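Researcher: Quick sanity check before group meeting.
Model: Go ahead. Protein one:
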Amino acid sequence: MDIKAILAAHRSDLRLDLFRGVANWFIFLDHIPDNVVNWITIRNYGFSGAADLFIFVSGYAASVVYARMMLERGFIIGATRLFKRAWHLYAAYIVLFVIYIVTVTNVAAQYAAPDLIYEFNVASLVDHPIRTLAHGLLLESKALNLDVLQLYIVLMACFPPVLWIMLRKPDLMMAGSVALYFTARAFEWHLPSFPEGRWVFNPFCWQLLFVFGAWLALGGVQKCRAILRLRMLPFFGIAYLVFALVLRMAGRFPEFGKVVPAWLLDAFIPVDKTNLAPYRVLHFVLVALLVTRFVSKDWRGLKWSILRPIIKCGEESLAVFCVGVFLSFAGHLALITSSGSLLAQVFVSASGVAIMTFFAYYISWSKRQDQQDSLSPGRVPAAGTRISETSAFRDPCRFKSSRNRQKL
């Protein structure tokens, strides 16, 4: 095998779990409308948001895990493991989709609030229940807040050939991803949704962030070191972030927006999320470069106890994401059926984050018990036997060092 890519370091990079945990918390908060707490999320202060971070880090982590697997055990094994991961994501989506639409429709009927089924994009269930479920199985549902998971499933299912090429021609694969991005925008390629419209996150465009994360993990970081060392990078990056902040605030506050030229505001606001606008990509890349420039793998803050809950939520990202989607609906319902006061918004947000963190710790603890059971006296596996993955919510993107894998 003529391998051109450079695999990332063997030891775990806690920044991946930290950023995925942050993304999960922010996605949950962003999914609760009319909530003052979601003003702390990154989408309010620039062009990019938590979804960009989630997809990018997922691509980086997936390439580290499955590229090494392909090299050690062959392409077929690596591809089947990727498809298995995509299947786990799909199974989680189906369970969440069914629970989600049933809960929304029941709550709307119980509280005599028919507007809820329109707000959460499940109105088609009333008129076409069978067709809605069928299109939901085909990932064509527009149920609110499930769009990120739909995108993630498609990206993981299509990743095997992408990774195969990237291991041999990483720069060519990255160039192909960029070409697909601009072609999809130029010719308006998209995937349809039921009963009408398009995917909220166009996968032909959003694949760029996923592939970019994979490219960085397979040698792209080394190729970007010259850019990272540029003295002008921090100044340019900060200037662009300030520019994005000003336009974002101008779009949120009409009085402030009057001082910004209308043609400039119309060019950037509202931000094109569906097709991942180029200025949104640039904003995210600059944020990533600045963060990685000042937060290294050896940053002492990664060991702080206050960050452990966030890192744990990143380690169990799939389960935490699914719990967060359901909790965001519950939180929204709690606010519209109560006073919706500032105290209520803070309480709902804090409670949701606490429940997500509890689930992350519980799942992590449960996995350790399964491992101890499989290695307990009287049930020690034979030499060379691999321990199987027992949980549909297992997140293989949380990779261990080679030394830890030998211990298992």
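Researcher: Fine. The other one?
Model: Protein two, sequence then structure:
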Amino acid sequence: MGKSFDQYASAYDAWFLENRNVLYSEVNLVASTLRDAGRILSVGCGSGLFEMILRNEYGIAVTDGIEPSTGMAEIARKRGLRVTIATAEEADFGHGDYDTLLFNGTPSYIGDLAGVVRKAWEALPDGGRIVLIDVPKESSYGLLYNLAKALGTWHHPLLEGCYPPNPYPIELVEAAAWRTTAEKAALLREAGFRELTFAQTLTSHPLTSNDAEEQPVEGYGKGDYVAVVARKRLKISGDE
């Protein structure tokens, strides 16, 4: 996984910068989950592009990150992050060191997501939050990505006219394993997290998702980028 992102680090940034409205629609969603987030650890921070924008344009400070790709980590460090090179499975999330563990765009690249979610629950303080944000398997983008992955290319008659002119690099598509929103919610509940909330963006077809910047809306089922936020509660009062 790290090797894929080492090789395509520049392509990753270039894709987002060439798809500015997609980028900012996603940044708006991430920012909406980090209100009063306290100390934040970004797990799979990549090149630090989102963290840099959050800091410079939204006033949200994310100073620490974990990233398995040395190429990505190097870029993120130049953007001001303190980055530990490790996979999510290997990484130390601390013990109460962070109030929020952010997984932005990374759940699909974590093999043992259930184990990582359990580790996050152990690491967070009472009241701490975990944020899982990604392309849902059931979404339009998720279906397109899985079809392209199965075909091994974007350039196939079955996909003709269905994907944006500048699609996500096929090498990064092939490295991912998307999960449904329901799967991620189930993993969170099984680990002990409560108070699940959902928000979404990229609500138009992938062909037109870069036409306009979107603000996030509550829920899921319409958006191609979905956030699931949950809290660690040692004492549960009432329903989720």
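Researcher: One line on it for the slide.
Model: The chain is about 35% helix and 15% strand.
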